[in-house]
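Hi F.,

I've been meaning to write this up properly since the lab meeting, where we talked about keeping a consistent format for the predictions we share between groups. The idea is simple: the sequence comes first, exactly as it goes in, then the structure tokens exactly as they come out, then a line or two of notes. No screenshots and no reformatting. I'm using this chain as the first example so we have something concrete to point to.
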Amino acid sequence: MGKKVTIIGAGSVGSTIAYTMAVNGIATEVVMIDINESKSLGEALDIRQGVSFCPPISIYAGSYQDAKDSDIVILTSGIARKAGQSRLELAQVNTNVVKSIAPEITKYAPHAVYIIVSNPVDILTYVFTRVSGLPEKQIIGSGTILDTARLRARLAEYYSINQKNVHAYVFGEHGDTSFVPWSLGTISNIPIDQYSSCLTDQSSIVPPLLHEDVENYIRKSGGKIIARKGATFYAVAISVCHICRCIFSGADTTLTVSSMMHGEYGIEDVCLSILSIIGPGGLDGKILAPLTDREQALLHHSADSLKEVIKNIEI
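Output, unedited:
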């Protein structure tokens, strides 16, 4: 059975997602759509000329009509974040982009799972949910999947341990009000804050981990990368491809993706990231992991921050 993915936006993020899909054999057909048709043609051709050394894949530039029968549609269009600019400052400009794209793409791919990647991702996931007319289970934002990857990479580096042994998450907004629910985090099933004391090799014990330092590292990583190289695209492409792989796998997987809240933790009418179950049809449910009172307060703060932005944009 084929696995068809349409990517809207052939900029750094969209084209790197397409490349990562080809190299890893995640999809069997990829359509690249961009308002700059020449750019999408060039990116598709560049990738296509290397696929003889990859798992079989058809990759080409197209239009909205070519998205017909897509299993997944990935939205990366919009104005990119500049150095020193918050994701939320992009809100109205990219809201207008999403509003223009939604009726065009859903007409041809009404049954696809939509992954919103453009920033500010939580706001745009909310906007797409409101304007698309699609069932909510078909719409997920990439949310804090990238933040979670950054967290796990940092903890693995800090403790010199394989990243696959690290189980920890970032909740809330993909942005400045994100937070780590440390009460849920483990390394090899050991609570993170107890991990050092369980090591027998005293020479490998590191200074105590400071939660605030790690969270600042996660929040500031994107800005630092943008300041140094102009954009972020490798880690987010790998993260989005991981979501696609989970959708195609046929097995439900827990991921921190953004979706509409309906009373979970007492939060309504906003999109943000908590632990969600992702399966072949998209969002298959959420997990109300036990949070401390402080963690619940941080989640509410994140929700309120996003609601304030939503209140000030025109949908």
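Notes:
The CA atoms of residues 29 and 58 lie 5 Å apart.
The chain has nine helices and twelve strands.

If this format works for you, I'll send the rest the same way.

G.
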